[in-house]
Amino acid sequence: MDLPTTVWEKRPLRAGLYLVATPIGAARDITLRALDILASADVLAAEDTRTLRHLMEIHGVPLAGRSIVPCHDHNEGAAAGRLLRAVAEGKSVAYASEAGTPLVSDPGFVMAREAVAQDLPVIAAPGASAVLCALAVAGLPSDRFLFAGFAPPARAARRSFVGDLREVQATLVLYESPKRLAALLEDMVEVLGAGRQAAVCRELTKRFEEVRRGTLAELAAEFAAREVKGEVVVLVDRAEPARADTATWEEALDQAMVTLSVKDAAAMVAEAYGLPRREVYQVALSRGQGR
């Protein structure tokens, strides 16, 4: 491994809680600003102290006598109090997840929310996120998405969880254990439909990165027959817009045509109900001529 060529020195950093994103795979995906903060913060905290210590060693960031405070799912309530007292005393506290962005299925929410409640500064140092990496490579619409976190491990709860997402008009993004991936895909086929486009992203930014795209049925068949390892992100295309009952939108069209032209009324109703504009316009023309 190449030795770091930059010497990171402690620089003045204003008091606050700094949420530092760390790489999800490739160590070089960390930002220069994140390294500045890690070098300069008065207090360091991490979900996994060994991971942060190793990352700092890779990039030549000295601890300079500082210890790293553990702050994870099992102790966040107690650790948050200690860390926020430091912020209140005018110190800078840098918190890093084991990988990725704090709060995105990682600890940090309890501490960040309490900092906000105490009117203490909370500053984001953005960087790697498996959600955004997966959206970038999945080939699915990214203008609107819903990050749903992890599905429940029990089958009945998982199917109910997926059912709640059935009509969401946004690309669905979930994390999943490699051991439960096949079961999740099977349930998605049954609940969401076999033909929905989807993608399975595995080990993003790492040596064995893999992205598989296809319908839910195709992906379910593929992963049912293979062993999966590593971090997994599952993405599913948005639901098809539900078509309104014909009588409902035709009634709305009649009302719109009282005050609007045929063209404008058709355009408004088509947009409101997610219908083809030409189809609504033809109906508007026939109803207008009948008056």
UniProtKB/TrEMBL annotation:
GO terms classed as biological process: methylation
Top-level taxon in the UniProt lineage: Bacteria
Protein name (database record): Ribosomal RNA small subunit methyltransferase I
Domain Tetrapyrrole methylase: 17-220
Protein family: Belongs to the methyltransferase superfamily. RsmI family.
HAMAP family in alphabetical order: 16SrRNA_methyltr_I
Pfam annotation, one family: RsmI_C
Enzyme class: transferase
Gene: rsmI
GO molecular function, a single term: methyltransferase activity
InterPro entries on file: 4pyrrol_Mease, 4pyrrol_Methylase_sf, 4pyrrole_Mease_sub1, 4pyrrole_Mease_sub2, rRNA_ssu_MeTfrase_I, RsmI_HTH
PANTHER family for this protein: RIBOSOMAL RNA SMALL SUBUNIT METHYLTRANSFERASE I
Function: Catalyzes the 2'-O-methylation of the ribose of cytidine 1402 (C1402) in 16S rRNA.
Subcellular location: Cytoplasm
Domain (RsmI HTH) ranges: 244-286
Record's keyword terms, sorted: Cytoplasm, Methyltransferase, rRNA processing, S-adenosyl-L-methionine, Transferase
Catalytic activity: cytidine(1402) in 16S rRNA + S-adenosyl-L-methionine = 2'-O-methylcytidine(1402) in 16S rRNA + S-adenosyl-L-homocysteine + H(+)
EC number from the UniProt entry: 2.1.1.198
